[in-house]
Amino acid sequence: MFAVRRRTVYRQTSGIPGPIELLREAIAEVGSRQRLIRYLVVAEMKRRGSDTIFGNLWWILDPILQMVVYVIFVSILLSTKQQPDYPLFIFAAILPFKWFSSVVTDGTVAVIKDTALIRQIAFPKIILPIASATGGVVGFAWGLIPLTVVTLLYGRLTPFILWVPVIALVQYVFSVAAAIFVSAANVFFRDLGNVAGHLLRLWWFLSPSLYSLQQFDGLGFVKAHPIIATLARLNPFAILFEAYRAVIYGSTTAPYAPPSGGPDVVGLVGLLLGSIVLVGLTTIFFKRLEPEFAKVL
Fold first, then answer.
1. What is the pTM of this model?
2. Are 171 and 277 in contact (CB under 8 A)?
3. Which secondary-structure segment (H or E) carries 254?
4. Of 243, 235, 291, which Cα lies nearest the Cα of 266?
């Protein structure tokens, strides 16, 4: 009998995939897994209770409660001069930031909560944070109900509110980038979820949430150092808050002036382009770490 020699097959390990290859791979994975993404989005909604009326009730009540707390804090405790119709002014910032905060919070566990699935089945992990971020859109949509009611109560509802989905699309792209980054980083740094909560609170107060950019520019130390005002306007949520307020609240300088124009389109386009770049960079970061997930989890 003749011995059968087996041909040894060696894996190609000549180099690590470059950034362009990783991006192409991620785009192909997302494009070919649309049904799986839809399934994960529905599963995420069910997990949060977002597919039921009572599950989404908190998206209606929570922004209203936050609005009441901040109105009391600013008007009574701080005794500072407010914008006219201040509850609507602050509501226009609370809702989008609540959406972003929920995306980041859910993004930190988007990968680690499916540890068993990752160990058993080979599938592109990049779809996990994307599905998690997409599921948050439903909560934001429910939050638009109380926002519309408050806008009606103050008589500021105009056709310019139709800009909201456009602004939300820009925020969605930015949020996806954040979700991809924290989902990968939290696999290796499990305290990131706790740190993210504190950073989000700091980000809220450093953004023009309780005040307008015009009020910030009027502060003495800002006038003395104009670079501070420039940096403040580069804050993504300075752009987003000002855009939402432009079409929901109206002028922050003229009293009781309803929306009379659209948002700063140039600023939104700049943020959108920057967010697309961030999605690319965070995707490369995610794909670099992805092969190590199963070893760490």
1. 0.87
2. no
3. none
4. 243
CB 110 within 8 A of CB 179: yes
Question: In the chain, what are the helix, strand and coil shares in percent, each to the nearest 5?
Answer: 75, 0, 25
Q: How far apart are CA 165 and CA 100, in angstroms?
A: 15
Burial of 66 (0-12, 13-18, 19+ CB in 10 A): middle
| pLDDT tens, the chain, 297 aa long | 434 443 433 334 446 788 899 999 999 988 888 888 888 888 877 776 655 666 677 788 888 999 999 888 887 766 656 678 899 999 999 999 999 999 999 999 989 887 877 777 778 899 999 999 998 898 899 999 999 999 999 989 999 999 999 999 999 999 999 999 999 999 998 888 889 999 999 999 999 998 888 888 777 777 777 888 888 889 999 999 999 999 999 876 666 678 878 899 999 999 999 999 999 999 999 999 998 887 787
Name all contacts of 199-204 with Cβ < 8 Å and 24+ positions apart.
Answer: 200/100, 200/101, 200/104, 200/105, 203/237, 204/97
What whole-number distance in Å separates Cα of residue 107 and Cα of residue 287?
A: 16
Domain boundaries, the chain: 19-296
Q: What are phi and psi of 158, to 5 degrees?
A: -135, 170
Distance CA 275, CA 178 (A): 9
How far is it, in rounded angstroms, from Cα 95 to Cα 64?
9
Q: What DSSP string runs through 66-103?
A: HHHHHHHIIIIIS-PPPPTTHHHHHHHHHHHHHHHHHH
